[in-house]
């Protein structure tokens, strides 16, 4: 009895596997391998995302069991002047940061592409900030922005006979001051991507254009920029998401009064962080996260639509 | 057959019992990572285990930034610590979340706690129960740079004792460059540091008010006293121009760099200031014109985790009693530099005569503690209040009223939950 069963089972299973066509087997193998990342993403990414939507409808504070409170968190959020301030800040980072950093990095990439002298070295110099820890960088910049006699920038202003500026200690200057460091930090990466894009444009196009007598400006407008579009789209979306999610620069440059002074530099992510991990107001923080998620989604979709391939 | 099973069961039961009595109870102690605190606690655990060979204490530490989250997460997972360290300001949250249990009055007689510890221990009491006991406490004092005092022609052994003298000393020691920019502060202005505590528990009282109602549920500083206290701090920068908020980032950094003649800070800064490359001194926080002094004291207390029961509870109680004993406090003072929480252990002649510990200890006798419900958020309210005046030129009275409203909203949200 037992021996019969033993003999039968491998034969049966082999039969089942053999009955599949090679195509089906391939599909099974493919899905077998794909299952791992899928399971990983579902548990690590998608499940918490869905959970956040649910939490945003509760008053969970980590300690007590969550109770359903409907849209109260959203009502509170939209009535909170801090949220609108933070919302404005976040979009200021986005609307000024993204174009400025892209234009700058394109100009640098465009000219760096033509430089032969110490090309690698200069490129490395531009890329270096991207490799540096945001925390270390932010701290150095924090000291640059200090009043005299510590701050280098104010020392220079002083030497030129100009009044010293408060920078991070000002409601109006703090956000631009932080944005400068954020742009500077991301520049290296964008330059590298732009240069890769520029190199990918076949030189024959340029040669043909020059033979036809096109000027440099026309070449840039008619050939370089259109052919660089996929790169540009990628960088616009990538850098927008980066600015919408800005956190470490701000947090590290204003550690004593995170997002200050007077919330003038606070981005949405920092507000979420504080609501969740210093006030333990998880439900409210989840509602803010959902709003951030929606903003990111809408902004990315709008950009993809505006910059879409027109056929 | 049945007999055999019965016998086996009996044997197993007996061996199990025997194991139970021979096996030591293990309890977990949690605190955050801070080198000297960890070191002191290791010493205390070693001594405790020596005296109680049947108990082992597992010492678990987390980075400060994650600490509260870890405690809360552990509770959710049902694996909390048996004895846990907490900041007194977190107590309401810890109690509300059921993370800790009240101390058994049989084991820790409440009248003894009240007579033996400094009165600030009352911040550990909710309703009729005490929820924890501190090993060490912290208070504020005025640190001053003797070298800068001497350069300014002041007596380095006679630091300011009143608020007026404080301003005079600051005016004498401040240094400015040709354009009037401060290059070395007379006194630091730093709401982000300890100034918000100084304002709340010291200055407001010295100007005749009180920061909160007696039950701690309403803001009481929106009056003349609160305004005078706020103006005292903002005037240091705006009127007397002896300090600059944000100068060298933080008051303590400016003081360490020898670019501030005075700063108000706590016992916890002693370690950082120990190797300052200049001579410095400590004195009590200045009194008001009538000689009234006040201070702000805070502490980390140890409490018993909600999940401890039976043998573990007993062991946890023993351990808590030991780490709140005078012996433990002496070790803590030596290793960490924090002041003993028991009067008898703290107010020894030797400690009071100590030029560093003395002023802090004197401060403890008249110190207050704020019952925070969300320390970060309430601190932020005070920072913003000062910034509106310093950076936006808002009228101090308006700024104060706004702060009172914001802080009341925080208190209401908590107490109405």
TrEMBL record, chain A:
<feature type="transmembrane region" description="Helical">
    <location>
        <begin position="174"/>
        <end position="198"/>
    </location>
</feature>
<keyword id="KW-1003">Cell membrane</keyword>
<dbReference type="GO" id="GO:0005886">
    <property type="term" value="C:plasma membrane"/>
</dbReference>
<dbReference type="InterPro" id="IPR035906">
    <property type="entry name" value="MetI-like_sf"/>
</dbReference>
<dbReference type="Pfam" id="PF00528">
    <property type="entry name" value="BPD_transp_1"/>
</dbReference>
<feature type="transmembrane region" description="Helical">
    <location>
        <begin position="285"/>
        <end position="307"/>
    </location>
</feature>
<feature type="transmembrane region" description="Helical">
    <location>
        <begin position="124"/>
        <end position="144"/>
    </location>
</feature>
<feature type="transmembrane region" description="Helical">
    <location>
        <begin position="27"/>
        <end position="47"/>
    </location>
</feature>
<feature type="transmembrane region" description="Helical">
    <location>
        <begin position="227"/>
        <end position="247"/>
    </location>
</feature>
<dbReference type="InterPro" id="IPR051393">
    <property type="entry name" value="ABC_transporter_permease"/>
</dbReference>
<feature type="transmembrane region" description="Helical">
    <location>
        <begin position="91"/>
        <end position="112"/>
    </location>
</feature>
<dbReference type="InterPro" id="IPR000515">
    <property type="entry name" value="MetI-like"/>
</dbReference>
<keyword id="KW-1133">Transmembrane helix</keyword>
<comment type="similarity">
    <text>Belongs to the binding-protein-dependent transport system permease family.</text>
</comment>
<protein>
    <submittedName>
        <fullName>Sugar ABC transporter permease</fullName>
    </submittedName>
</protein>
<keyword id="KW-0472">Membrane</keyword>
<keyword id="KW-0813">Transport</keyword>
<feature type="domain" description="ABC transmembrane type-1">
    <location>
        <begin position="87"/>
        <end position="303"/>
    </location>
</feature>
<keyword id="KW-0812">Transmembrane</keyword>
<dbReference type="GO" id="GO:0055085">
    <property type="term" value="P:transmembrane transport"/>
</dbReference>
UniProtKB/TrEMBL annotation, chain B:
<dbReference type="Pfam" id="PF01547">
    <property type="entry name" value="SBP_bac_1"/>
</dbReference>
<keyword id="KW-0813">Transport</keyword>
<dbReference type="GO" id="GO:0055052">
    <property type="term" value="C:ATP-binding cassette (ABC) transporter complex, substrate-binding subunit-containing"/>
</dbReference>
<comment type="similarity">
    <text>Belongs to the bacterial solute-binding protein 1 family.</text>
</comment>
<dbReference type="GO" id="GO:0042956">
    <property type="term" value="P:maltodextrin transmembrane transport"/>
</dbReference>
<protein>
    <submittedName>
        <fullName>Extracellular solute-binding protein</fullName>
    </submittedName>
</protein>
<keyword id="KW-0732">Signal</keyword>
<keyword id="KW-0574">Periplasm</keyword>
<dbReference type="GO" id="GO:0015768">
    <property type="term" value="P:maltose transport"/>
</dbReference>
<dbReference type="GO" id="GO:1901982">
    <property type="term" value="F:maltose binding"/>
</dbReference>
<feature type="signal peptide">
    <location>
        <begin position="1"/>
        <end position="24"/>
    </location>
</feature>
<dbReference type="InterPro" id="IPR006059">
    <property type="entry name" value="SBP"/>
</dbReference>
């Amino acid at each position: 009895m037992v021996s019969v069963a033993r003999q039968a089972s491998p034969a049966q299973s082999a039969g089942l596997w053999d009955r599949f066509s090679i195509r089906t087997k391939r599909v099974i193998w493919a899905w077998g391998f794909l299952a791992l990342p899928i399971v990983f993403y579902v548990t690590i990414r998608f499940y918490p995302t869905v959970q956040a939507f649910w939490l945003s409808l509760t008053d969970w504070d980590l300690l007590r069991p969550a109770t359903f409170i409907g849209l109260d968190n959203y009502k509170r959020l939209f009535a909170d002047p801090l949220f609108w301030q933070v919302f404005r800040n976040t979009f200021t980072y986005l609307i000024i940061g993204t174009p400025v950093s892209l234009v700058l990095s394109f100009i640098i990439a465009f000219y760096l592409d033509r430089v032969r002298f110490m090309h690698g070295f200069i490129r490395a110099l531009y890329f270096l900030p991207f490799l540096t820890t945001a925390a270390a960088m932010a701290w150095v910049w924090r000291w640059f922005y200090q009043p005299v006699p510590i701050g280098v920038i104010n020392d220079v202003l002083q030497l030129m006979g100009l009044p010293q500026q408060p920078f991070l200690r000002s409601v109006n200057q703090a956000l631009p001051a932080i944005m400068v460091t954020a742009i500077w930090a991301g520049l290296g990466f964008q330059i590298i991507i732009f240069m890769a894009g520029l190199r990918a444009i076949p030189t024959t196009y340029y040669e043909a254009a020059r033979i036809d007598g096109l000027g440099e400006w026309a070449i840039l407008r008619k050939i370089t920029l259109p052919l660089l579009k996929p790169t540009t789209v990628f960088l616009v979306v990538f850098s927008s998401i980066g600015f919408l999610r800005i956190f470490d620069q701000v947090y590290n440059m204003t550690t004593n009064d995170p997002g200050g002074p007077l919330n003038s530099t606070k981005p949405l992510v920092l507000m979420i962080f504080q609501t969740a991990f210093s006030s333990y107001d998880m439900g409210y923080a989840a509602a803010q996260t959902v709003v951030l998620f929606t903003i990111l989604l809408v902004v990315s979709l709008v950009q993809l639509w505006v910059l879409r391939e027109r056929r | 057959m049945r007999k055999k099973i019965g016998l086996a069961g009996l044997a197993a039961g007996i061996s199990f019992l025997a194991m139970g009595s021979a096996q030591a109870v293990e309890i977990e102690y949690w605190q955050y990572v801070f080198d000297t605190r960890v070191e002191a606690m290791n010493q205390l655990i070693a001594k405790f285990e020596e005296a109680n060979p049947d108990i082992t204490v597992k010492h678990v530490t987390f980075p400060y930034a994650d600490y509260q989250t870890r405690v809360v997460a552990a509770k959710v997972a049902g694996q909390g610590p048996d004895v846990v360290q907490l900041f007194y300001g977190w107590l309401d949250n810890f109690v509300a979340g059921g993370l800790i249990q009240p101390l058994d009055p049989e084991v820790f007689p409440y009248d003894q706690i009240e007579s033996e510890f400094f009165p600030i221990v009352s911040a550990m009491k909710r309703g009729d129960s005490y929820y924890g006991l501190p090993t060490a406490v912290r208070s504020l004092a005025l640190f001053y740079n003797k070298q800068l005092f001497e350069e300014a022609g002041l007596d380095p052994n006679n630091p300011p004792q009143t608020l007026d003298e404080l301003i005079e000393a600051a005016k004498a020691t401040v240094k400015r460059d040709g354009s009037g920019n401060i290059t070395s502060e007379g006194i630091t202005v730093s709401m982000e540091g300890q100034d918000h505590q100084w304002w709340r528990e010291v200055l407001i009282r010295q100007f005749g008010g009180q920061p909160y109602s007696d039950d701690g549920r309403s803001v009481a500083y929106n009056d003349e006293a609160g305004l005078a206290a706020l103006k005292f701090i903002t005037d240091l920068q705006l009127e007397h121009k002896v300090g600059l908020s944000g100068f060298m980032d933080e008051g303590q950094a400016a003081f360490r760099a020898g670019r501030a003649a005075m700063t108000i800070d706590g016992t916890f800064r002693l370690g950082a200031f120990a190797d300052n490359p200049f001579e410095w001194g400590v004195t009590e926080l200045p009194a008001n014109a009538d000689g009234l002094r006040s201070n702000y004291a805070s502490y980390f207390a140890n409490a018993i985790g909600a999940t401890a029961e039976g043998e573990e509870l007993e062991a946890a109680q023993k351990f808590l009693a030991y780490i709140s004993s005078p012996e433990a406090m002496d070790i803590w003072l030596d290793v960490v530099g924090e002041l003993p929480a028991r009067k008898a252990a703290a107010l020894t002649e030797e400690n009071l005569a100590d030029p560093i510990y003395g002023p802090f200890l004197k401060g403890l006798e008249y110190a207050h503690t704020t019952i925070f419900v969300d320390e970060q958020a309430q601190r932020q309210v005070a920072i913003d209040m000062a910034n509106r005046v310093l950076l936006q030129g808002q009228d101090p009275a308006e700024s104060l009223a706004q702060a009172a409203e914001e802080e009341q909203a925080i208190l209401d949200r908590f107490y109405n939950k």
